[in-house]
Amino acid sequence: MGFYDYSAVKMDGKEVRMEQYKGKVVIVVNTASKCGLTPQFKELEELYKKYKDQGLVILGFPCNQFAKQDPAGNDEINSFCQLNYGVSFDMFQKIDVNGSEAHPLYQYLKSAAKGALGNTIKWNFTKFLIDKDGNVIERFAPTVNPVKMEDKITELL
After folding, report:
1. Under CATH, to which class is 3-156 assigned?
2. Active site amino acids
3. How far is residue 124's CA from residue 61's CA, in Å, rounded to a whole number?
4. Separation in Å, CA 145 to CA 74, 138, 140
5. Phi, psi of 99 (to 5 degrees)
6. Of 1, 68, 115, 126, which has the highest C-beta tally within 10 A?
């Protein structure tokens, strides 16, 4: 199975198949509202606004598995992202990214691009860059500022 074979549920409750993003460059990121890295929402939104017309999409997946830094419900998380960071890219309902309950999409992403901890997500704001054909190109550590991904993004666009 590949990236386009998976689906996830957006904040509005609608299931979205990843095949909807065929032909786009995609960033998939696990997020948290109460994390020291939460300001990355600002940089992610800036990248999205700058490149969305050229085919960039960003898919945010809230997760509460790291120090319980996203304990709120989906509605509150969605409001927080919009009010505090003006997030307009696609946000999905909260998921697990590690363990036996990890979302199937994340099981796939972790196996396609291993990180410092192998097949495990290290922390909030781990970012996966996917090309227009659905290939996982690179995994970026949580501490990598999204702006540092810009050269790779423009190469793929």
Report:
1. alpha beta
2. 35
3. 10
4. 25, 14, 9
5. 85, -175
6. 126
